[in-house]
Design a protein that fits this description.
The chain is an alpha+beta fold. Helix content is 41%, strand content 19%. 37% of the residues are buried.
Length: 683
C-alpha cells in the first residue's frame, strides 16, 4: 500500500473512534431522541470520513517530484553489477572500492580492492572529472584502449566517483593502421652536386651512380619508391610506419653514403634530406618537404630535417660533418641581382646586426651600406657601439659617408622608418639576438644575409630574400664578393677594405679555420682594394686588464670526457672585454689533445639585475660545437659557436626557466649539453 493510502486508512480509523465516543456520550446524556441521534451522527460520520479521505488521496497525488522517494541505491548497484560494460567505483583518493565482473576481466593480473586507478591506467580523478568534451578520458590497460567516463555520486561532494569503461581498441587499431599507411614525401639531394657537375663531371658520374644504387636499396628496404628528377636530386615516397624505424636508427643512410668517395682526394659524399610528416594532399606534402630540404641546406647539409603540420618542433638528424666552403662568385652575383631591385624600390634602407656586434657584423653592415649609398638611398646602420668594435666604430664615424648614418639608441621612436623601408639583417638569423628586434614589426621588406647555420625553419616575419650560407667563413666574405660583383675596381677605400678584412680574420682566426676558395678570393679582392693585413690585425690589440683576465681564465682549464676542454671564470669577475671568452677558446684549442674548447665567463652586463654568462666554443672539426650550444639556446658554426645564459631563460637541457646563475651551474649545463648535444647516427 502506498503512503497516501496508509494515511487515508488512518484518518478513517480516527474518525470512527471519535464518532463512537461522541455518540456514546450524547446517548448517555439523553438530550436527543435515540432515532435522531443515530441518524445525525451517521450522516456526519460519512461526510467527514469520505471527504477527508478524498482530500488526503487528492493532495498526495499532486505532491512535487522532490517528495517522491529516491531510487534504491541497492538496485543501481545491482544494475552496474550485471552490466557487460566495465564499471568501478573509486573513493576521493582514486582507490577502487568496488567493481563489477566485467571490470575485473580487463586486466590479466586481476584486481583487488584499494587498487590505485592512476597506477592501473595512468588516469587521475582530476583527468576524469575535467572532461568537458563528452568524449571521455583516454586510458590504456594492457593492450586494450578505453574511453572512461566519470560520474560523481550525489551527496558525496565528489569523494565517490562511478566510472564506466568503453573498449575502443578496434577503433584505435584502425587509427594506427591509417596513420602507418600515411604517405611520407622526402626530397634527397647530394650535397654540392652542382659544384661537382661544373668541374669534374666524369669522376662525379661514377660516385653519383653508386649513391643512386645506395638510395634505391634504401628505398627498397623501407618498401618505398625513389626517383631521380634531376642530376643528384631525388624524390622519395614511403609509408609513415617506416619513418619511425628511420628515426629510431638515426638514419644510417647518412653514414653509409660517406663510404662513397669522390675525386683524387677521396672526398666523402654526403646527403641532405627534407621530409614532410604531415596530412593533406600530395602537393601539400611536396611543398613541406621542399621547405625542410631548404632548411637542411641552410644548416650546412649532411643532415635530415623533418617538418610536420602539428605544431611540433622540427626534428634534426646528422649534421655532424664539417661543411666544405663552396661560396662562389656566381652565388654573390645572383644575390646582388636579387637585392638591387629591392634597394632601388625602397624609400629608405636600414641595416641591422646582432647584439654585441663584432668586426664581422659591423664590416658586413658597412659593405651593404656602401651599395645602398651608391644607389642614392637614405641609409641607416642599426649597430650599437661596444668594446668589441670601439676602434672601428669610431673610425667609421670619422668617414664622411658614414658619420651620420648610425642609429641613435637613446631614442625610442622609429623616425627613420618609412612605409616602404627595406631592412637588411646581417650576420645573424636568430631573432632573439637581433640588435633591435622590434624593428622587424615596422618594415615592409626584409633581407637576411648570414653565414651561421639557420636557427629556425621560420621567422615571425616575412622575408624577401633569405641568403644563409653556412659554407662561407664570415658575413664579411659574402659582402666582399657582393661588392666585387657590384663595383668596378678601385671604389673601396683602404679603411673600408681593412675593416672587411678584419671581419674575415676574426671569424677564420687569421685564416686558420673555415677557409675555402671563396675566403681567399675575397681576401685577394680586398688586398687589391688597398687592405693591409697588419693594419687589419691592429683592431684586435688587447689592453692589460683584458690580457690578465684571459690568462687567469685559461689557467682554469680542465678536460672533460677526453677531448673537451672547459675554462670557467669566477662569479664575481665579469669579462672586461666581450671577446675575451672567444679568444680564450681559440687559444685553448691549440693545445694538443683538445678537439673542442669552451670558455665560460660572467658578462659585464647583468640581465634584470642577475648575473649573465657567455659561452664561447671552438672545434678543430672533429666535434660539432654548434649542435652542442644549440641546446643552450645558442648557435653558430660547426667549429665556431656561442651562447648567452641568463636568469629566466629556457634551454633544452634544463626543465623550466633557469634560476639565478653561477659559474659552476653554467658549467654543469654545458656538460649536459656535451653529453646529449651530439647524437651521431648509428652505423
Amino acid at each position: 500500500m502506498s503512503k497516501k493510502g496508509r494515511l487515508a486508512v488512518a484518518y478513517c480509523v480516527i474518525c470512527t473512534v471519535l464518532f463512537i465516543a461522541v455518540f456514546t456520550l450524547i446517548s448517555y446524556t439523553g438530550k436527543l431522541p435515540q432515532a435522531w441521534t443515530t441518524a445525525l451522527f451517521t450522516v456526519l460520520y460519512c461526510v467527514i470520513t469520505v471527504t477527508g479521505a478524498f482530500l488526503i488521496v487528492k493532495l498526495g497525488s499532486s505532491s512535487s517530484p522532490s517528495d517522491l522517494p529516491p531510487r534504491s541505491a541497492r538496485s543501481v548497484t545491482h544494475l552496474l553489477a550485471v552490466m557487460k560494460t566495465p564499471a568501478a567505483v573509486t573513493d576521493g583518493d582514486g582507490k577502487i572500492v568496488w567493481y563489477n565482473n566485467a571490470f575485473s576481466d580487463i586486466t590479466e593480473d586481476g584486481l583487488s580492492k584499494d587498487t590505485d586507478l592512476q597506477k592501473l591506467c595512468g588516469l587521475t580523478l582530476k583527468d576524469l572529472l575535467k572532461d568537458d568534451s563528452g568524449e571521455g578520458a583516454a586510458a590504456k590497460v594492457g593492450d586494450s584502449f578505453y574511453r572512461v567516463f566519470g560520474y560523481p555520486q550525489s551527496g558525496s561532494n565528489g569523494r565517490t566517483v562511478t566510472t564506466l569503461w568503453f573498449d575502443v581498441s578496434k577503433e584505435e587499431a584502425y587509427k594506427t593502421k591509417l596513420d602507418n599507411e600515411r604517405l611520407i614525401v622526402a626530397y634527397v639531394i647530394i650535397d654540392m652536386a652542382d659544384n661537382f657537375l661544373s668541374g669534374m663531371q666524369y669522376q662525379y658520374a661514377d660516385a653519383a651512380a653508386d649513391v643512386t644504387k645506395l638510395l634505391r636499396g634504401w628505398a627498397d628496404s623501407c618498401k618505398g619508391h625513389i626517383r631521380e628528377y634531376d642530376a643528384g636530386k631525388y624524390i622519395m615516397m614511403f609509408y609513415a610506419d617506416q619513418l619511425s624505424v628511420m628515426k629510431r636508427d638515426a638514419f644510417p643512410v647518412l653514414n653509409e653514403v660517406k663510404k662513397i668517395t669522390f675525386g683524387d682526394d677521396a672526398v666523402p659524399m654526403t646527403l641532405s634530406i627534407g621530409i614532410a610528416d604531415c596530412g593533406g594532399n600530395v602537393a601539400d606534402k611536396c611543398a613541406l618537404a621542399s621547405s625542410a630540404m631548404s632548411f637542411a641546406l641552410q644548416r650546412g647539409g649532411d643532415q635530415v630535417v623533418i617538418k610536420n603540420d602539428r605544431g611540433a618542433k622540427d626534428e634534426f638528424y646528422g649534421g655532424l660533418s664539417k661543411h666544405d666552403p663552396q661560396l662562389t662568385g656566381l652565388n654573390a652575383r645572383r644575390l646582388v641581382l636579387q637585392a638591387t631591385p629591392l634597394i632601388k624600390k625602397a624609400g629608405s634602407v636600414l641595416i641591422m646586426g646582432h647584439k654585441n656586434a663584432d668586426f664581422d657584423c659591423l664590416a658586413s653592415c658597412m659593405g651593404i651600406a656602401k651599395i645602398c649609398l651608391s644607389l642614392g638611398k637614405k641609409t641607416t646602420i642599426v649597430v650599437k657601439d661596444n668594446k668589441n668594435i670601439a676602434r672601428s666604430y669610431a673610425r667609421l664615424k670619422e668617414m664622411p659617408d658614414y658619420k651620420d648614418i648610425f642609429y641613435d639608441f637613446d631614442r625610442d621612436d622609429f623616425d627613420m622608418i618609412e612605409h616602404d623601408s627595406l631592412l637588411f639583417i646581417m650576420d645573424v638569423n636568430n631573432p632573439a639576438i637581433f640588435e633591435y628586434p622590434e624593428m622587424t614589426n615596422h618594415v615592409s621588406s626584409i633581407i637576411i644575409i648570414d653565414h651561421h647555420r639557420m636557427f629556425s625553419s621560420s621567422f615571425p616575419f616575412e622575408t624577401r630574400i633569405q641568403y644563409i650560407e653556412p659554407s662561407a667563413s664570415s658575413a664579411s666574405e659574402i659582402v666582399a664578393q657582393m661588392l666585387e660583383q657590384f663595383f668596378p675596381s678601385g671604389v673601396l677605400t683602404a679603411d673600408e677594405a681593412n675593416l672587411l678584412l678584419a671581419g674575415i680574420q676574426l671569424d677564420t682566426n687569421s685564416f686558420t679555420r673555415d677557409c675555402g676558395a671563396g675566403t681567399y678570393a675575397a681576401a685577394q679582392y680586398l688586398r687589391r682594394e688597398g687592405a693591409d693585413a697588419s693594419e687589419a690585425s691592429s683592431f684586435f690589440s688587447l689592453n692589460k686588464k683584458a690580457f690578465m683576465f684571459e690568462l687567469k681564465l685559461e689557467s682554469s682549464m680542465r678536460m672533460y670526457k677526453g677531448g673537451f676542454a672547459i675554462c670557467a671564470g669566477d662569479d664575481n669577475t665579469p669579462a672586461p672585454d666581450p671577446a675575451s671568452s672567444a679568444r680564450v677558446a681559440e687559444t685553448v684549442l691549440k693545445i694538443e689533445g683538445v678537439s673542442a674548447s669552451f670558455a665560460v665567463c660572467r658578462m659585464n652586463t647583468d640581465v634584470n639585475g642577475d648575473p649573465a654568462f657567455s659561452i664561447s666554443a671552438r672545434s678543430d672539426g672533429k666535434e660539432n660545437v654548434q649542435i652542442i650550444l644549440e641546446r643552450l639556446g645558442g648557435g653558430g658554426h660547426h667549429s665556431n659557436a656561442g651562447a648567452q645564459l641568463s636568469t629566466g631563460k629556457t634551454v633544452q637541457v634544463y626543465d623550466g626557466p633557469l634560476p639565478k646563475l653561477t659559474s659552476d651551474f653554467v658549467v654543469k649545463l654545458l656538460e649536459k649539453a656535451i653529453d646529449s648535444g651530439v647524437k651521431p647516427a648509428k652505423e
